[in-house]
């Protein structure tokens, strides 16, 4: 098992059809004790219970620093350590550049970008004290190609910001044996895009994917498990594309 006895925390991990829950499930299968963090409305306790009694679900809003810190303290008390953080929480909005309002901008950047900052700040002191840790940040192909699928320009900016923040963390904490890497998923079938791909756009999207199909949550989960595990122990600051070849660069 790749993650035996590791404690893995996943933000935004409660959605049954989401990348976070697929990652949580695969990490549990690989021997990790998993902590699912999510908003109350997503019911993280129920999601964790679906994985088994040794796993934990906590309400935490990644846009709220105090909420992230409280969750980290509860995890430390319950599990004793924190080995892995997956910064997965994110929201999107399909809107054109000139239509982005200040509150749209704040909302989208706050979850992906501020959320990555706050959740990472909450777990880093524990990882530094352990002299080990692996943080995986979920960015998006949207950051690399300037959107153009479902998210608006502010979503691209948030996800590009995640790449910069993660690389800076990787540089700062390499000496503490903490690795920080990113995954950039292409189009993956989850609730974030369910029913939002118009039929006339679908074929054009598929034509742009060399592997010829939309990805599944487990396609991303496998890559996150790889980056969280010691299989990737000499990788830090990298960006792993999981997009069926949609962006070959
Ligand atoms: P999803 O909507 O199923 O998952 C997002 C989760 O984040 C939800 O469980 C939601 O409750 C949670 N969340 C939202 N705001 C939060 C907050 N303030 N605090 C804590 N949790 C919060 O969608 P998904 O497709 O599984 O998305 C997971 C990640 O992958 C997101 O960051 C998304 O931007 C990214 N992503 C998805 C795709 C795709 O095609 N599905 C592609 C590239 C990147």
From TrEMBL:
GO biological process, one term: fatty acid elongation
InterPro entries the record matches: KR_dom, NAD(P)-bd_dom_sf, Sc_DH/Rdtase_CS, SDR_fam
SMART domains, A to Z: PKS_KR (SM00822)
UniProt domain Ketoreductase: residue ranges: 6-186
Record-level Gene Ontology MF annotations: oxidoreductase activity, acting on the CH-OH group of donors, NAD or NADP as acceptor
Transmembrane stretches, start-end: none
Top-level taxon of origin: Bacteria
Family from the record: Belongs to the short-chain dehydrogenases/reductases (SDR) family.
Protein's UniProt name: SDR family oxidoreductase
């Amino acid at each position: 098992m790749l993650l035996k006895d590791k404690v893995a925390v996943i933000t935004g991990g409660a959605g049954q059809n989401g990348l976070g829950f697929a990652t949580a499930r695969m990490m549990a299968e690989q021997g990790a004790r998993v902590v699912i963090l999510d908003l109350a409305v997503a019911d993280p306790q129920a999601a964790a219970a679906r994985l088994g009694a040794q796993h934990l679900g906590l309400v935490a809003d990644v846009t709220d620093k105090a909420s992230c810190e409280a969750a980290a303290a509860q995890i430390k008390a319950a599990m004793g350590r924190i080995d892995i953080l997956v910064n997965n929480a994110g929201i999107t909005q399909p809107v054109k550049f000139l239509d982005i309002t200040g509150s749209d901008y704040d909302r989208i950047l706050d979850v992906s970008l501020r959320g990555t900052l706050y959740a990472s700040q909450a777990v880093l002191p524990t990882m530094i004290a352990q002299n080990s840790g692996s943080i995986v940040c979920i960015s998006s192909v949207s950051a690399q190609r300037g959107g153009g699928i479902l998210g608006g320009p502010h979503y691209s900016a948030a996800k590009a910001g995640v790449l910069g923040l993660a690389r800076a963390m990787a540089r700062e904490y390499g000496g503490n044996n903490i690795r920080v890497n990113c995954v950039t998923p292409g189009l993956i079938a989850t609730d974030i895009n369910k029913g939002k791909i118009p039929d006339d756009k679908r074929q054009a999207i598929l034509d742009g994917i060399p592997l010829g199909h939309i990805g599944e949550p487990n396609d991303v989960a496998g890559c996150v498990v790889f980056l969280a595990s010691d299989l990737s122990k000499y990788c830090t600051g990298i960006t792993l594309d999981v997009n069926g070849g949609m962006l070959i660069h």
